[in-house]
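Troubleshooting log. The previous structure file for this entry was overwritten by mistake, so regenerating from the original sequence record. Sequence copied from the archived sheet and checked twice against the printout by T.R.
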Amino acid sequence: MLADMQSEIDSLRQRITEFDTRNAELIRQMMEESNRHDARIEKLEQYLDELEKESESKKNASR
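Regenerated output below.
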């Protein structure tokens, strides 16, 4: 009976290790995706700033 309980404990520990490994992989993937989105947002913000400056320059030139 004690051996059965120890076997079950070992099995549960193994499952926890597998869950922890999978969780770490998912977190890594989420962080990579978040970093890609952050980079894209930064590029779009820079592009928007350029368009706003260009628009302002055209307004000033037509005055």
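The chain has one helix and no strands. Archived copy saved in two places this time.
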